[in-house]
Specification:
The complex is a heterodimer of chains A (72) and B (221).
Chain A (H helix, E strand, L loop, with lengths): L11 H12 L4 H8 L3 H13 L3 E4 L2 E4 L1 H5 L2
Chain B lengths: L2 H4 L19 E4 L2 E4 L7 E6 L6 H19 L2 E7 L3 H15 L7 E3 L4 H6 L13 E6 L5 E7 L7 H17 L13 E2 L6 H11 L3 E3 L2 E4 L2
Parallel strand pairs in B: 3-4, 4-5
Antiparallel strand pairs in B: 1-2, 3-6, 6-7, 8-10, 9-10
Helix pairs in contact in B: 2-5
The chains are: A mainly alpha (72), B alpha+beta (221).
């Protein structure tokens, strides 16, 4: 997986995403600029992290859940 | 019943054609699970290759990687596909980097069940029932199919032509023009032919030397 390994650990990209969103909630476009990653990759990664309950979306902005914060 | 009524209309296969919305899919890739809609807002070249660890495909992947930065400047992404596993793709990409010194910077779909290949008609059974042909689907930022190219198994694709098509389509969209044979950026473009006799007269008057005739007018951008 792009952000979470099969054993549940975060990949470097997953960790970068969580750290970025810990600084401030962002829409996917801003995450892409912040990380210098293409938007399609960020969208896929945000979906994966959302599915793992590490982040959630509210009003177009993604932010960390308590579970997500515990991973940092 | 007369003979004319016996003629059957051509069967519509449902395969995507130029001008159709690109069929949506979700697929496992070397970048994790991706949906086609993840690419919305970018142009996209979805292309298939017959198999990992084959020589022609390896030359193509190195060539695609080479044009990737230029495609990105055109807001265009690349997405590869073959009937191989993610593990095979990963091993091949690592091998290409190790042996050829080229990093593959775009995702590759692992289409073991041929789901996406079938959706897009990438398998040509007359050529191979197990491998995808060298298909290229160029989609715009709204995910409409804008161009389709097929090459056979034996023949590697021409990256400069793929780049040229993307540039030509974007130029047509931006300026409302067409592009002539062998057009390259910076060369004259073609004005769409007038649709009335009055407009034809006006076109010849306005465009002057740029027109060989009322229907054949070129101009610089």
């Amino acid at each position: 997986m792009a952000c979470i390994d099969p054993d549940g650990t975060l990949t470097p990209l997953g960790l970068l995403l969580l750290k970025g969103l810990a600084e401030q909630p962002m829409p996917p476009e801003d995450v892409a600029k912040h990380l210098g990653e293409p938007l399609f990759r960020v969208r896929g990664s945000l979906r994966e992290l959302t599915g793992a309950d590490l982040i959630e979306e509210e009003g177009g902005l993604y932010h960390l859940t308590e579970v997500g914060q515990s991973k940092l | 019943m007369d003979s004319a009524t016996d003629i059957q209309a051509p069967t519509v296969t449902g395969l995507p054609r130029i001008g159709d919305p690109a069929p949506q899919f979700t697929a496992d890739t070397t970048f994790g699970t991706l949906k086609l809609e993840d690419f919305k807002g970018s142009w996209l070249i979805l292309f298939s290759h017959p198999a990992d660890f084959t020589p022609v495909c390896t030359t193509e992947f190195m060539a695609f990687a080479e044009i990737h930065p230029e495609l990105r400047e055109l807001n265009c992404e690349l997405l590869g596909l073959s009937v191989d596993s993610v593990y095979s793709h990963i091993a091949w990409v690592r091998n290409v980097k190790e042996k050829m010194g080229v990093e593959v910077t775009f995702p590759i779909i692992a289409d073991l069940n041929k789901d996406v290949a079938t959706l897009y008609g990438m398998v040509n059974p007359g050529e191979s029932t197990t491998e995808t042909s060298r298909a290229v689907f160029i989609m715009d930022d709204k995910q409409m199919i804008r161009a389709i190219i097929y090459y056979p198994l034996t023949t590697g694709r021409n990256m400069q032509e793929i780049l040229r098509v993307v540039k030509a389509l974007q130029t047509s969209d931006e300026h409302g023009v067409a592009t002539p044979a062998n057009w390259e950026p910076g060369q004259k473009v073609i004005l769409p032919p007038p649709k009335s006799a009055e407009a034809a007269d006006q076109r010849v008057e306005e465009e002057g030397a740029g027109c060989k005739d009322w229907y054949f007018c070129k101009k610089d951008l």
